[in-house]
Amino acid sequence: WRAFWKAFVGEASSLREWYRREVFGALVRMRLPIVMMLLLLVGAIWIGFEQAGEFALPPGAFNLDDLQLDTFSQIGSIKLLEPQGVGIIWLHNLRASALAFLLGVISFGVFGVLILMLPFVLIGYFMGTLANVGISPLVFLAGFILPHGVLEIPAILLVGAGIVYMGGVMLTPSVDKTIGDAWLAALADWAKIMVGIGILLFLFAAVLEVFLTPRAVVWLLG
To answer: Which helix H or strand E contains 94, and what residues bound it?
Structure first.
C-alpha cells in the first residue's frame, strides 16, 4: 500500500501539481496503449456493423415513428429525464470499469478489453441494422451516441488503455524493478487516470445521457 500510495501521489504537493505532473505523466506513458485501445474500439464497431448483415432483425423491430420524450421515461429502471437516472448510469459505468479492471488483472488485460469492446460491437450492430432499414448510421450516432459519447467514449478509452498498459507491464521485464513494483506503479497510473479523469467524465456523460441524449434522438428521429 505504501508503494502504491507513493506512486499515486508522486512528488506533487497540490491538486493542480498532481494533475500537471502525475496525471499528465501517466497519459504520456500510456500513449501507445491509448492508440491501441482506439483501434480496438473502432474495430469493435466494424465487427458489429458487419454482423448486422449476418443476423438481421425483423423489419418491424425498430419503430421510430412518432418518437416522443415520453418514450424514454418508460424505459424500465434507467429513469432517463429524471435526476436519479444520473446516479444509476454513473454507477453502472463505474461498476463496468471495475469489472473490466478485475478481469484484466487476471488475463493480462485481454478479458478486460473485451468487456469494454462489447458495447461498441452493439453500437456497430445497431448502426448496420438501421442502415438496412434506410436510416443513416451517422444519424444514429448523432442522436443516440454522440451527445453523451463525447465524454463517455474518451473515459472508456482511457480505462481500457490503462488495462492494456498494466497487462503490458506484467509481460515485460524491468531491469530496475521487480514485477510487483512495476505492476504497482502501473496500477497507480491507472488509478490516476480513473480518479483524475475517468470518474468525472463518466459523471458528466451520465448527466448528458439523461437530459440531452433523449432530446437529441427525438429531434433527429422523431
So the answer is: helix 84-105
